[in-house]
Amino acid sequence: MKALARLWTWIGNLFVPLAIGWAVYVRNGLADKPPPDGVLVSRAYWGVLIALAAAAAMVWTVALYVHLAKTEDKPILVPPNTTFEDDESRNRIISWGTVAIFVLAVVASLAVFGARYSESRIHGWNDQQPLQPNFLGSRARAFEQGCDAQPSQRVDADDNPIFGVNEYILYLTDGVLMFFALLAASGLVFLMWQILLRRRPRPFEL
After folding, report:
1. Contact 169/42 with Cβ under 8 angstroms?
2. Contact yes or no for 88/72 (Cβ under 8 A)
3. Backbone angles phi, psi at 115, to 5 degrees
4. In whole angstroms, how far apart are CA 18 and each of 33, 62, 172, 178?
5. DSSP tag of 161
6. pLDDT attached to residue 97
7. In 10 A of CB 110, how many CB atoms?
8. 22, 38, 54, 86: which sits with the fewest CB atoms below 10 Å from its CB?
9. Distance between CA 202 and CA 73 in Å, rounded?
10. pLDDT digits (tens, 9 = 90+) for 20-35
């Protein structure tokens, strides 16, 4: 259980400042003028990916901890924040406050990054017009057309080079997001199942 608690704390402590910094980066808070929309969408993609991966790791860590905590009849089911507490010295305010902060960070990150990524429209590499004017339609069209050529330098309408736009790779780009989303969802189902299970009855004693 100590290993799960350390993992929970480590992931959360790493993710929260990373998410805040990346949200500023996605909103272009460090530059004088905004880059092309494709650059911001590509940044948002990585934000969604990191948030989903963190969500999957955290929810499975909590679910396994709850399972062990119920097995050992622990009074507090959530893992301790090992920065401030351990299994022998627990503080409900710190433990549950940590859960609230980590959950809020993941939800807020998915909202911020997801909103920007939802603006994604798949283009031909140097085509200024999207394949279709909406998120799902442009992806469906990309799958219909396929892509055999490797991309060259991305340029804007004035033939100026653009740096920071990711290539959309069929099956892989959104497939990775779906994988981590399903992993997080399955962990959430397992967690809810563990929460709803009754604690094991205490054995009879003389």
Report:
1. no
2. no
3. -60, -45
4. 23, 21, 24, 22
5. B
6. 95
7. 20
8. 86
9. 9
10. 999 988 877 666 777 7
Give me 151's structure tokens: 């991309």
Task: Note the pLDDT of residue 86.
Answer: 81
Could you tell me the CA-to-CA distances from 148 to 68, 138, 142, 143, 144 in Å, in that order? 50, 17, 12, 12, 12
How far separated are the first and last CA of the chain, in Å rounded? 29
- SS3 for 31-52 is CCCCCCHHHHHHHHHHHHHHHH
Cβ count within 10 A of residue 151: 13
120-167 tens-digit pLDDT:
888 777 777 888 889 999 888 888 887 665 555 555 556 566 677 788
CB atoms within 10 A of CB 164: 13
Q: What share of the chain is helix, strand, coil (3-state, %, to 5)?
A: 60, 0, 40
pTM equals 0.87
Question: What are the distances in angstroms from CA 64 to CA 5, 87, 157, 174?
Answer: 10, 15, 52, 28
- With bands split at pLDDT 50, 70 and 90, how would you rate the model's confidence at 206? very low
63 closest CA partner among 168, 196, 177: 196
